[in-house]
Amino acid sequence: MMRRLAGCLLSAALAGAAACAEPGTEQAKPGRVELTFELPKPMFVGTPKNIRTPNLEPPRKGARPPLMVPEGTQLLSAGKPVTSSDDEPVVGEVEQVTDGDKEGAAGSYVELGPGTQHVQIDLEAVSAVHAILLWHFHAQARVYRDVIVQVADDPDFIMNVRTLYNNDHDNSSGHGIGKDQEYIETYEGRLIDAKGARARYVRLYSNGSTADEMNHYVEVEIYGKPAE
Fold it and tell me: I want to staple 157 with a disulfide (CB 3.0 to 4.6 A). Which of 67, 83, 152, 217 is the partner?
């Protein structure tokens, strides 16, 4: 290992590089920082063993890897307008999706009807989206089906629609077969690297869960920068 590191340092010096990372580590690119955010308190401990789904990701070992984003990345979605495919939510109001309340207790989430439903956030300006962090429901371990996240330039999702995340393995929601895996809901939420996608509107789909056929959203946080 020391020989490899010495060779790396020599190569870096010849190339005029400032530093050389050890094998197995990643250097932050210039102008990029780790995304920081506040998580809600955990509502349960441990990984349940009775959840059966054909596309479940394996348990993660250790902490969630950091997501590096450009300097100046900020929370864009706080208090932004929210609409949904369900005009009359069963529980709560769609405004709760961006109200900052991430707790899993009763009264902290909106419940939409059965089938494929979505919530949509208007950032009110074209932005470079670098990360999306979402919580469906984390008071109980469950897996939500057909989690799809898309961005677009118009509210009807006709212009320049791009899919950032899709774990619909059988196209049951009709937006194509996704390559992402299903996951168990926890207080950490699902962090998605949006890779700087330029968009004004963000739409998030789901199609029930392993608990029941309803759709829930506690909070969605969208991080980015105003588009240049």
Answer: 152
pLDDT tens for each residue of 135-176? 999 999 999 999 999 999 999 999 999 999 999 999 999 999
Q: Which domain holds residue 150?
A: 25-47+69-226
Question: In angstroms, rounded to a whole number, what is the distance separating the alpha carbons of residues 64 and 219?
Answer: 19
pLDDT attached to residue 47: 64
- From the CB of residue 181, how many other CB atoms can be counted at a distance below 10 Å? 14
Q: Which is higher by pLDDT, 25 or 204?
A: 204
In this structure, is residue 15 part of a structural domain? no
pTM assigned to the model: 0.86
Residue whose C-alpha is closest to residue 42's, from 103, 124, 120, 108:
103
The C-alpha atoms of residue 99 and residue 150 are separated, in whole angstroms, by: 21
Distance CA 165, CA 110 (A): 21
Rounded distance, CA 8 to CA 13, Å? 9
Residue 108 is assigned to a structural domain of this protein: yes
> Measured between alpha carbons, how far is 101 from 218 in angstroms, rounded to an integer?
7
Paired with 206 in beta bridges are 117
17 in a structural domain: no
Q: Which of 104, 29, 118, 35 is nearest to 76 (CA)?
A: 35
Position 49 scores a pLDDT of 66
Does residue 165 fall inside a structural domain?
A: yes
> Which string of b and e fits 111-141 if b means at least 16 CB within 10 Å?
bbbeebbbbbbebeeebbbbbbbbbbbbbeb
- CA separation, residue 60 to residues 105, 165, 224 (Å): 25, 19, 26
**How many whole angstroms separate alpha carbon 170 and alpha carbon 146?**
9
